[in-house]
């Protein structure tokens, strides 16, 4: 059987893909360069913020950041992500209490010497005021698999890659609209499933406090790697 026939036979009984014209906006080359520079400079200005103001943030802004994240490409377009957006002060306090208890154990018992050395330049500790100060806490869950109607597991593809891209778009959207966030990974995060009533096929991956930075917010003075350290053009 030739290649074409083998492919056709395997896909014969499956619904045919439906195509539509691509809506694409192109720009003159000079404008492309300017847009590329502007976007780079905007991304370069983004910083992880650990000191938040308690100033309220409209729900619509959070909704738009999640909608932006939801445009991420994903393996087989299964969009294996779920967001829980929290502005309840009581719920944020509970998350902070549990997180601080676990983080204290992480910082004092679970961390290897190497991990401690890598973190020292950031000056972080187990105290997580950002969880209660920031008006919103958004938790991103990955769907490791989903459940079919007959209760069997349905496989998801490239979940970590897809959710990572989704998180990147969320962070960029928050930055672009003039807010700040912290990519937080409380360790361990399992308690968030029970607390937020999420099903067992989901795992919390990132916790994002979102809000305005406080007037006195500071960030660690760190540098990003130069391009020549992270890019190889062709075969070197
Ligand atoms: C997957 C991931 C997990 C992170 N976890 C934490 C965390 O638990 N606590 C924290 O304070 N920062 C955390 N960060 C933030 C990083 O420390 C921060 O992105 C890095 O220091 C670079 O700083 P910048 O984002 O301001 O460029 C995390 C970042 C990523 C991408």
What does this structure look like?
With 236 residues, this protein is an alpha+beta fold. It has a domain at 51-110 and 125-216: NADH Oxidase. The protein has nine helices and six strands; from the N terminus they run αααβαααβββαβαβα. It has helices spanning 3-11, 29-44, 59-69, 89-110, 113-120, 130-133, 159-176, 191-195, 227-230; strands at residues 81-86, 136-143, 145-147, 153-155, 180-181, 202-211. Strands 1-2-6-5 form a four-stranded antiparallel beta sheet. A two-stranded antiparallel sheet has the order 3-4. A hairpin with a 5-residue loop joins β3 and β4. The longest helix is centred in the middle third of the chain and has 22 residues, at 89-110. The protein is globular and about 65 Å long. The model has no long low-confidence stretch (mean pLDDT 96). The structure holds flavin mononucleotide (FMN). Residues 47-48, 50, 122, 124, 182-185, 219 line the site of flavin mononucleotide. Flavin mononucleotide (FMN) binds at residues 47-48, 50, 122, 124, 182-185, 219.
The number of E-state strands comes to 6
Highest CATH level, the class of the domain at 51-110 and 125-216: Alpha Beta
Number of H- or I-type helical stretches: 9
| Helical residue percent band | 40-55%
Main sheet: which strands, in order across? 1-2-6-5
The major sheet is characterized as: 4 strands, antiparallel
CATH topological fold name of the domain at 51-110 and 125-216: NADH Oxidase
Into which percentage range does the β-strand content fall?
A: 5-15%
Query: What is the CATH homologous superfamily assignment of the domain at 51-110 and 125-216?
Result: NADH Oxidase
Spatial extent as radius of gyration: 21 Å
Shape: globular
Bound heterogens, unique: flavin mononucleotide
Structural class: alpha+beta
- Averaged pLDDT: 96
Unreliable stretches: none
Query: Distance between the terminal alpha carbons, to the nearest Å?
Result: 41 Å
What's the CATH architecture name of the domain at 51-110 and 125-216? 3-Layer(aba) Sandwich
What are the secondary-structure elements, in order, as H or E? HHHEHHHEEEHEHEH
